[in-house]
């Protein structure tokens, strides 16, 4: 009986390992941790803005927040991490808008008030929908748009940036691939199981836009060394900023004014203010 049970386990593990769709589904259950609804509103923050609806190329309905800045002619597309929903990032998005920029913050499919279920291909499509909205609905040229990708959103930003004439890309607390993160925490088996997923390392060489990268040196989720590794793969022009004492989820708080000032200087260099 033990031999039969063991054989069944081996067959199941081999099936998971070899069947790419199933493997991606299993890993995705860990990679995506969405929460529904809106937990914080623009009115809660006393901010003027809009809740917007977008449609991805496969027809999935997406939710987001558009935070305008009076007189701005540039925009940031905010691509958040793997957990929660877009409303949890509203305070950060509002602070970014104060750098004389409009901000579009989207909920990936399955997050917040967006429809569908998240998967790797789907969140890439959602980012493309956000970029299309800024260009076609808001009239902002691609070269005046900067991507901001945090953690898993950094991988989404790298995928979107390939071959595009964007104003710039800001990556924060992100990684070369999901397999590297899995390997750092759970060893070779996790690295192997997540192979090929969110593989920014193989894509970043195709990025044409200037890069600004941030990473906390006490990051216990995406190790600092992985952030440096991805940065080294990126083409010039690029700059890397270490946020001393920051972990994975407190970069804004620890970075403080200096953090936003650095973002402001980057925006003014790659998308100079006009008028």
Shape: globular
Content-based structural category: alpha/beta
Total beta strands: 10
Q: Provide the CATH superfamily.
A: Alpha/Beta hydrolase fold, catalytic domain
How many helices? The count is 9
Secondary structure elements and pairings:
Blueprint: H1 2-18, H2 20-31, E1 33-34, E2 50-55, E3 61-67, E4 75-79, E5 83-84, H3 90-97, E6 102-106, H4 120-137, E7 145-150, H5 152-161, E8 168-172, H6 178-186, H7 188-193, E9 211-216, H8 224-233, E10 238-243, H9 251-270
Parallel strand pairs: 1-5, 4-6, 4-7, 7-8, 8-9, 9-10
Antiparallel strand pairs: 2-3, 3-6
Helix pairs in contact: 1-2, 4-5
Describe the structure.
There is one protein chain. This protein has 275 residues and is an alpha/beta fold. It has one domain (2-270): Alpha/Beta hydrolase fold, catalytic domain (Rossmann fold). Helix content is 40%, strand content 18%. The chain is built from 9 helices and 10 strands. It has helices at residues 2-18, 20-31, 90-97, 120-137, 152-161, 178-186, 188-193, 224-233, 251-270; strands at residues 33-34, 50-55, 61-67, 75-79, 83-84, 102-106, 145-150, 168-172, 211-216, 238-243. The strands form 2 sheets. The chain has an 8-stranded mixed beta sheet, with helices on both faces. Strands 1-5 form a two-stranded parallel ribbon. The model is unreliable at 6-15 (pLDDT under 50).
Which structural traits does this protein have?
single chain; 275 residues; alpha/beta; Rossmann fold; 8-stranded mixed β-sheet; two-stranded parallel ribbon; 10 strands; globular
